[in-house]
Structures are given as C-alpha cells and as structure tokens.
Design a protein that fits this description.
The protein has 159 residues and is α+β, with helices and mostly antiparallel strands. The chain has a single domain (5-155), classed as Hotdog Thioesterase (Thiol Ester Dehydrase, Chain A, Roll), CATH 3.10.129.10. Helices cover 25% and strands 33% of the residues. It has helices at residues 5-15, 18-23, 56-69, 147-155; strands at residues 26-31, 34-39, 46-48, 53-54, 83-90, 100-109, 113-121, 130-137. Strands 1-2-6-7-8-5 form a six-stranded antiparallel beta sheet. The protein has a two-stranded antiparallel sheet with strand order 3-4. Strand 7 and strand 8 form a beta hairpin. Helix 1 (5-15) packs across helix 4. It is globular and about 45 Å long. It starts with a helix and ends with a helix. One of its GO terms (cellular component) is cytosol. Keywords: Hydrolase. GO terms for molecular function: 1,4-dihydroxy-2-naphthoyl-CoA thioesterase activity.
C-alpha cells in the first residue's frame, strides 16, 4: 500500500521532534483536509496519580504539534513555521486509560502567517476535550533557522 506524500512528510516531521518521540506521538491520518495525531495513554504523562488524568501539558504539546505539523498538509514544500500564538480551551479532562487524538486544519494561509484550528478528543470527535486555534509564522523554504532539523525532516531521520 502506497503512502501519500503528505502523510510521509508529516511522519518525517514528527520523527524529527525528540519530545514527540518521548511522548509516543504518532501520525494517525494526514491529508489536504488536515492532520490527526495520536497520543497514547501512559503512566508517565499522568498529571494526577490519584485519578489517572493526563497532564494538561501533554495535551498542549499534542495540540501545538498537531497544529504545527498540519502546515505540511497545505504547503507545497516544507517550511519551518514556528508557533506565534496558540490558544487552547479545555472542555473537560481526558478519561484515564484512553489515548487522545488531536486534529488540526489550516483554514487560512497568507504569505507570512498560517492560521490553524482543531480539537482534541478520545472516542468521539463530537465530544472534544479541548479546542485550539493557532498562528504559525512562515519563514520560507530557504529559512536559515534550524538547518539541521530541516535536513532531518527532508531526509526522514530523527534528531
């Protein structure tokens, strides 16, 4: 079964981010319509040991990463696009013992900024854990920012 170029680019991008490797983030789906990442439930991301609820920081990382990588779904070539602004509205805590999924789409692309929106959910996207909106700066394909990260993503290697 062949992999789409968008899915392949999203997987390479995610594999280059060490903190995402530690969290176990995985690309669930990726297409021109958007990106879904999966955060597997594990004890090392629990914020409250008494309840087993996932720490909000893990959900924030999931959603920032999902929004950031969703830029590869709309751009013709890889560009480094750092987060300018991210707002997350938490609706309710994630249910302990279950994976969390993050979906994001790019709803507006300008020459300098990409605007994203999405949500985190567990079993049902219609029952979100959180909603997110984010803005990401376009630095251009020739940006000199983190050349090593860009090279790793393009070559499919991990940082």
């Amino acid at each position: 079964m062949s992999t789409s170029p968008i899915l392949e680019r999203a997987q390479r991008f995610l594999s280059a981010l060490r903190h995402c490797q530690v969290l176990g983030l995985q690309v669930h789906t990726a297409s021109a319509e958007g990106l879904t990442l999966r955060l597997p439930y594990s004890q090392h991301i629990v914020g409250n040991p008494d309840s087993g609820v996932i720490h909000g920081g893990a959900i924030t990382t999931l959603m920032d990463t999902t929004c950031g990588i969703s830029t590869v779904c709309v751009l013709p070539e890889f560009e480094i696009c750092p987060t300018l602004d991210l707002r997350i509205d938490y609706m309710h805590p994630a249910e302990p013992g279950k994976d969390v999924f993050g979906f994001a789409e790019c709803y507006r692309v300008t020459p300098h900024v990409i605007f994203t929106r999405g949500y985190a959910y567990q079993d049902d996207p219609a029952q979100p854990i959180a909603h997110v909106v984010g803005a990401f700066m376009r630095m251009g394909k020739a940006a000199q920012g983190d050349a090593e990260l860009k090279q790793n993503i393009q070559q499919g290697g991990a940082a």
